């Protein structure tokens, strides 16, 4: 891992996040950014994983591929936005996602949506990372 390029911002006036995220992240000057599109649980051949947990694993494996291509790792992730068709599946998503985070505590947003691009898709994830070279 490289030197930290961001820091969590919080206040005693705010609730401490009950999960593996931060209320806010400040990116220090001079960083380069990586923004992903909405990633879904699909393999290179186009096959879609079955179920929210398997899709989450595939998404975070794909995120790791993109991070490596940008010479980054999960410690550089500053924001994760997740869109889910069924919010009752959030615990299964979190259980699949959390091992990928390690010590990273990015800012996170979770949104319930009525549908995604294909009926078999249960969630879609966008990620933003920042790193100093």
Which structural class do the helices and strands define? alpha+beta
CATH superfamily, by name, is RutC-like
Number of helices: 2
Order of helices and strands: EEEHEHEE
The domain count comes to 1
- The tally of strands reads 6
CATH architecture: 2-Layer Sandwich
Distance between the termini: 12 Å
**CATH level 3 topology:** 60s Ribosomal Protein L30, Chain: A
Provide the low-confidence segments as ranges: none
Structure characterization notes:
The protein has 133 residues and is of the alpha+beta class. It has one domain (6-131): 60s Ribosomal Protein L30, Chain: A, CATH 3.30.1330. The protein is 23% helix and 26% strand. It is built from two helices and six strands. The strands form two sheets. A four-stranded mixed β-sheet has the order 3-6-4-5, with helices on one face. Helix 2 links the parallel strand 4 and strand 5 (107-112). The chain is globular and about 40 Å long.
List keywords for this structure.
2 helices; single chain; two-stranded antiparallel ribbon; 60s Ribosomal Protein L30, Chain: A; alpha+beta; 23% helix; 133 residues
Summary of the model, kept short:
The chain is α+β, with helices and mostly antiparallel strands and 133 residues long. It has two helices and six strands, in the order βββαβαββ.
Secondary structure blueprint with pairings:
Layout: E1 6-9, E2 24-27, E3 32-35, H1 52-69, E4 77-84, H2 90-101, E5 107-112, E6 123-131
Parallel strand pairs: 4-5
Antiparallel strand pairs: 1-2, 3-6, 4-6
